[in-house]
Amino acid sequence: MLQQTQVKAVIPFYERWMRSLPTIQAVARARSERIHKLWEGLGYYTRVRNLQKAARLIVTKHGGKFPENFEDVLALPGIGPYTAGAICSIAFHQPKPILDGNVIRVLTRLFGITGNPRLPKVRSRLWKLADELVLAATHWDSAGRSRGKNATRGVLSTHPAPGATNQGSPACSHLNQSLMELGALICTPKQARCRVCPLARLCSAYLNNRVQQLPNLSRRPTPTRRRFMALVAQKQGRFLVRQRGEGIVNAHLWEFPNAEILPINLDLNSAALAIFGIAPENYEPLCTIKHTITRYRITLEVFRIKQNACRQFGLGRGRWLKRRQLRMLPFTSAHKQILDRLITKVAMYKGFAVP
Question: Are residues 213 and 258 in the same domain?
C-alpha cells in the first residue's frame, strides 16, 4: 500500500484491510472483487493483484510464513529491490540497501552527484553508496560509533568497531529509516532545512551552495490531456455498468459505459451520436470529473440518459444492477465519484428514483 502512496493516505485503508483480511491465508483465499473493493480509492490496482499473487505463493511455497531470505522476498510478485531491501532491513535487521525518492535526494546532495539519477549508470552508483552505508551500519558499536574511513568519505565506515556483529543488528533498520526520514522532513525537494541537518558539515551540496541544483532530474514529459464521455443509464431501478477486462488499466474494476472522445475538441453531441448512437435530446448533463492517471490529465463528462430513451440504445455488454449491488462492487476512482454523486442527487430527477 505504501508503494506510490503517502502514509497518511494509507492508514485508513490498512486498518480496514487488516480487519477484513488479517492473515496471509485470508488474502490468498479472498475473491477478486473483495480485494479490489478493499483497495478501492488507493489506485494502481496492479499492486493489490500482485499482493494476492504473493500471498498465494507464500502459502504454497513457504508454508504460509513470510520469507526472510532477500532473494525469496525479491521473487514475490510486485516486490522490487527497494521494497525487498526495506522489508529485509527494517523487519529482519539485514544489511540491505534501499533507494527511494527521499534517499536518492539525500545521497545525491550528500555526495555531490551531478548526474541524472534516472540514468542507469547514476542509479547504479547510488545503489552502491546505499549498500556501503548499510554495510557500515552493521559495524556500529552500542554507542553508534564506527572507526576508519572509506569511499563514503567519513559519513560512515565499513571498518568494524570492537565487539561489533553483523547478525541481526537494528542499526540497519535505523539507518534506512533515518535516510528516508531525513529526506522527508529535512532534506526536502524545496526549502531544505540545511541549518538543522545533522549531516550539513559533510554535505557536498550544502558546502558548495548547490542544494537546489541537486538531484539533477530531467523534466518530466508535459501532461497529456484526454477527454472521455460517460453515460448513466437506468431502467426499472437498475443501472448499467460493466467490468474492465484483463490486461488494461484498472483491470477487473467496474465503470459506467464510457468512451474517449477523439480528437479532444470534438463536439460532444457529435461524439455521443457517433459512439453511442444517442441524439442530443435524449441525454442531459450529470457532472464533470477531472482526475489524473500517471501523465494523463483526464476530463470525464458524465451524462444521464433520459429514462424513456434507455431502451433505444445499445451501450455494449454490461449488467443492470440495483444501487445496493453497485455499492458492493469495486469501481475505478472516477466512476466511484459518479456513483457517489448519482446516489446523492438521484432524488432531484423526476422518474429517476432508486430503491
Answer: no
> Around Cβ 120, how many Cβ atoms within 10 Å?
7
Strands annotated E in the chain:
224-232, 234-235, 238-243, 254-255, 258-260, 283-293, 296-305, 319-321
Q: Domain limits at 1?
A: 1-66
- Three-state SS annotation for 83-133: HHHHHHHHCCCCCCCCCCHHHHHHHHHHCCCCCCCCCHHHHHHHHHHHHHH
Q: How many residues would you count in the chain?
A: 355
Our measurement of the distance from residue 218's CA atom to the centroid of its chain's CA atoms, rounded to an integer in Å, reads 22
Q: CATH number of the domain that 55 lies in?
A: 1.10.340.30
Three cell numbers, residue 67: 520469507
Where does a domain end: 199, 218, 237? 218
Distance of CA 109 to the CA centre of its chain: 26
Q: How do residues 283-336 score in pLDDT, each as one tens digit?
A: 899 999 998 888 899 999 999 987 666 665 556 678 999 988 999 999 999 999
193/197 Cα distance (integer angstroms): 6
Q: Which of 217, 206, 219, 218 is nearest to 109 (CA)?
A: 206
pLDDT band at 351 (very low <50, low <70, confident <90, very high): very low
Amino acid found at 19: R
From 167, 187, 218, give the residue that closes a domain.
218
Q: How far, in Å, CA of 169 to CA of 66, rounded? A: 20
